Each structure stands twice: as C-alpha cells, then as structure tokens.
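User: ok so my PI wants both of these folded by tonight, can you help

Assistant: No problem, let's get them done. Here's the first:
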Amino acid sequence: MSNHYTNTVSTVLLLFFLFISSASSSSFIRQYTDDSNTNFQEENGAVPDAIQGEAHYLRQHEQEISSRDYKLSVSNTVKGLRDRPPSSYSLKMESFNTLLKSTNADKYVSRPFSAAGYKWTLIVYPNGNKNDNGAGFVSLYVAIDNSTLSPHQEVFVDLRFYVFNRVEKKYLTIQDTDGWRFSYFKTMWGFSQVLPVNTFKDSNNGYLYDGDHCEFGVDVTTPTVFKESELFTVTDKFYNPKYTWSIQKFSTLLEDSYYSDVFSIGGRRWNIKVYPGGSATGKGKAVSIFLILNANEKFRPYEKIYVGAKLRVLNQRNFKNIEKQIDNWYNGPGYGDGSGWGYNEFIPFSDLKDSSKGFLVNDVLMVQVEIEAISSTKYFPS
C-alpha cells in the first residue's frame, strides 16, 4: 500500500513539473518573439498604433483625401509671378530641410483656417505626393473639413497656390482654369508637381533662402454666378442710312459753326456740324465737318456706342466725292469729349474756291453722312 501511494505521488509531482516547464517555455518563447518584433520595428522606424480599429480608420481617411477624380491637364494649369501675398492662408517654414530629409514625415498639415465659409487645411509634401505621381516634386494641396458636409453636398471653389521667391521678391502662383469640386468623399485637391525638388532646394533659385526658410500659401475663393450683365450688339442694316445737308449761301456764313437739322438713323438722333472757317488745325485753311450725337440723346454715364459712318462733301459735277471714315466710340452728350467725331481739315479752302472742281456750286455746299454701323447695349437689370 505504501509503495502504491509513493508511486502515485511521484507521478502527480512529475506531471506538475512538466506543466510548469511547458508554461515557462511558452512564456519565454512568446516574450522572445515579442521582443524580436519590437526590436525589428524600432530598427526600421516608428511603429504604428497597435489599436487596429483606429489604425484602420486612419488609413481609410488618408485614402479618401488622397483620391482624385481626374489628372489635371497641363493646358489647364496657369503659372505666374505676382507681388500680392496669399489672401486665405500663409505658411512660413524655417526648418524645411528637416522635412526634406525625413523618411517618414512625408507631409506637413497646417492648422485649420477659414475661407469661403468652410474650414480648410494647407498640406505640403516636401518630397512630393508619391500616390499622385508627385515623386521628386513639391506638392501642394488643400483639404476641406468634411464634418459639416452632408454626404451629397458639393463645394465648388477656385484655388491659387503660392510659393515665395526671394530672388524675384514675388510669389510664384499656380492655379487651374477650372474650378475644384470638394465633397464629403473628395476632400483634398491640389497640384502634385508644383516645383521639382532639386529646383526648390537650389538657393540660387530663391525658393529656399536663409538656410532652409520658405513660404507657401493659398487663396480659396467661391465662384459666384453673376447678378448683373449686359448684351452688346451692332446693327449694320438701316432703312435709310444716308442724310444729305445742302448748305445754302455758304460763302456768306459768318458764325464759327452751324448745325444741320436733327435726323434719325439707327434709333439715334444726329446732327452734322460744320465749321465754315475751320477749327483747331483747320482754322483759316479748311472746312471742318463732324458727326454729332444730338444733345437730347439719353445715355447712362458709363454708356458708349460704336459708330461706323462715312462723311462726304459731294461733288456736284459728277466727279469724285471727298469721303472720310468715322470709326469711333461715342459718349453720351454731357459726359465729356466723344459725343462728336470728324475732321478739322476736311476740305481745303483752295478746293472750294476752284469752281472747276465742283464742290461749291452756286454757293451751295452739299455735305452727306452715311451710317454703316451703330451699336447698342442692353443692361440687366436695366
């Protein structure tokens, strides 16, 4: 009996020690594996958050804001230099080289700023957004805070990005001729290839200065549909486009200038104005002739009309007329110079006095205008 009891106890103790040894070995192996994994991760850079749910959400969010509807056409991209700084947000950096050398800090995200009624962030990829064909370039984007957007809401904006150039003392700007459409799912837009990194790093080019200082910026504006407009048209066909004025006893006229009767062509009232003794450069040597908008014509202060016409002194012996072209913008009467156009030296006195030339016959001078084109503008609202 004693021997059987002893054997039983020995067997139980043996099994107990085997269990303890197995547990210790498993613990040792697991600890060794964990330590090895940790060391491997630490040797290859920072480790991600181990909470898988949150990590999955962050990766999904990154994928959303990096996706693009289309690749920008180069023909739609406009670059230039300007003096004015950005109006929506400016980002000055004094340690840009640190980000250029980093293998894991691939982008810089600004604090949120307000523009066009929404919250935005400016995003800079010093070595380019590799997911958007930007490797080797400086990439610039803005992202909208979509927490205030409904799933079907869209926000259309115009974007202009800025990079300061110290050499030029101006800002390089880049923008697209089309607007940008942001939504709950499309939250980030911009340019993946703003400047080659090598161009940016070369201090001789002026983008990186005082060691590693630089400045970026952006304008975010909302294009709105116009509320005021106008429609400009030109009429070139008239029922009776000519008006002829026969000036009797021309040689006896003593006043500086004379007006014809009022006549209407193209929905406007006109006068021909003649200076028998000449005006300005024609005074004392030539007759001056002008086509004048009648003083009672109603114009807005900013309104002008285009007039194409021919002024003529008719030859009364069937020889060639003297003809000169009117091709000018007319202001409304009372709104400065420009309500009348013509020529100070239209016909020399010598041609009038020579009766054989046929311009002054029986002391009658015949002046004619032929209207060829008159513009009109409709304003909305009127």
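One down. Here's the second:
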Amino acid sequence: MSIAYRRLDSSKREIRLLEIQSARNLNDPIECKLVTVRVTDDLEFIALSSLYGDAKETERIYISGLPVTITAHLASAIKNIRAVFYPTISRRFQRTPARRPHGAPRWFRQLFGANSAQRGELEARSLRVWVDLVCINQNDEEERHRQTLDMRMIYKAAELVIGWLGDKTEHTDVAMMTLAEIEDAMPAHWGDPGDREKHPEDYSPTHRWARPITHIWTPGPGGEIPFMMPHWVGCNDFMTRQYFQRRWILEEIALARFPTFLIGDIIVPWKQVLRLNRMMEEFKYHPSEVFQKELSAMIAELPLETAHKLLDEFARREALEEARILKETGKSRATSSTRSNE
C-alpha cells in the first residue's frame, strides 16, 4: 500500500519523520507514524544514513496501522535503532568506554552505562527518525529533488546521524570489543597534528600506550595467526562492509554534528573507526617495539581508506570548532574582567 503524503511547505523548512513505537522484541513488526515538523534548533531526531539493500528482499512496516513495503535491509536498520534507543527491548546498554563520546547529545551519552533513572528517561523519549526512502515522497519528483538538495540541512540538523552497516555476524561482538579496547587504550589526542612531537613515546618505535593491549595481536594458543582469530575476522568484516565502499554516502554522514555507525544493535562512535585506521597505518608503515614486524606485511591495504580521509577531515573540523569556542570563551572572559575593573 502506498503512503498518503501531505505536501511539504519548503518555505517553512518542513520535513517528515517516522515516529517509531517501542516493542517487546527485536523482530516485532515496526509500528510507526509519519509526522510533519519544522526544522528548528530544538528539534530532536535521528537521521539514518544507509544503503537501501536488495530490492527483492522486502518487509512490511506499519505506518498509522497501514502496511507499507520497504527493503529488508532498511527494516533491519529501523528495528536495531529501535532496540538501541528503547533499550528494554534488548535488555542491554552500550559498553561504557573510558571516554564517553565527545560532542554527542546528552541522552546519547546516557546509553553508555545508563543508570536506572536515566533508563526511564530514555524510554520516555519520542523516537523520531528520518529515513529518506519513507520520509520523502518518492512519487513526487519535485519533492525528491528539493529534499535531496536539503539533505545537507537535514543531516546537520539531526542530533545524531547513524550509518547503518547491516546485521551482525558471529564475530561482530568480539570485534567491537576489540575496537573499544583500542579506543580506551589510545591517548585522547593520538594521531592529531602535533601530538607526535609532544608525546614521542606514544609513537614509533616505542608505542607505550599499546603495551597493555598487545594480546590483541598475539598468536592464538594453538599458534594461530592473529589476523585469523575471531576478533580480527570480525574487524575485517566490519571494515569491508558495503557502506564504507560508497564515497557519496560517507560524504553524507560527514555532514553530521555527531556521526556514528550501527552494526546490529552495537553503536560504534566515529572516532573508534578513525582510531582503528590510524593504528593500522602506524603499525603498517612504522617499526614498533610492541607490534611484530612480520605482522606488518599482513596488514591489508585498508578498505576504509575513503572513510579514514573523511573522518580525519571531520576530526580536523571538530578541532577547529573547539579552538573557536575556546577563543570566544577567552575573549568573553577578558571582556568581563575588563568591565569589572572599570
């Protein structure tokens, strides 16, 4: 059944969002409604960035009680977003990292180790998601063209942009634990411009920060090659997802205030992906006291090269924004001090 769309008023910066209902189980049917809203500074919503998937594999969702067919890939994305942001479905909260995601909305940070009071707050939130295939009237060529042009505005307005990588495999959980372990061990500014000169002990050949996690690339108990062990098999699967092979879709997510990735029901903050790339490049091209030389040749050319460049650019923009805020704060304090002395 097709959706009965009401025409959007572009002069009012109107967009449509899917307001998704909670569910008891991950695979419960998706029940939602389309709401028309104005894009304002206080609008709260999540934008989904995703490939559509195989058009032959479909699933029904229910919009205001009426069945609508979408691809199974997108349906799985919505189900897992629902599971993450209505966490009583999966009964799990995201692993608490050593450093909570910088720049993320407060309610998103609460997912990482939420207490009982915060869980109630998360459950009470209205889950609104922008999914272009559904929120844009695909039969209205004028609207499709206009919303495509407005996509930059939509991704920038969203509190969170989620890049959907697809469902988990048997090795995903252990792989994501490995990514988080690398993130926790790595100094906050490792790889940033100028950090190598400030902290040479954290770079080639010493790599002091990596000593506590050398078990990640230690051969298995039976002498297995490290990169053939489950955690690296899972990492390789993560890095070779089709999502990362599409530059245009990565350019979309790079517009976000806070981009993140979702694989199954596991959230992967963008910086974990960037840091994995930086670490692999460091060990591939520079000698190390903690990383075996023979393993360097086994590090494949990173399939995330495009993602690395874009996320590196995002990190640069974030640093510039932080510097601007600090500069403005300094000016404000100086002005205040001057006035108080007059």
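DSSP finds twelve helices and nine strands in the chain. Residues 10-166 form one domain. Good luck tonight!
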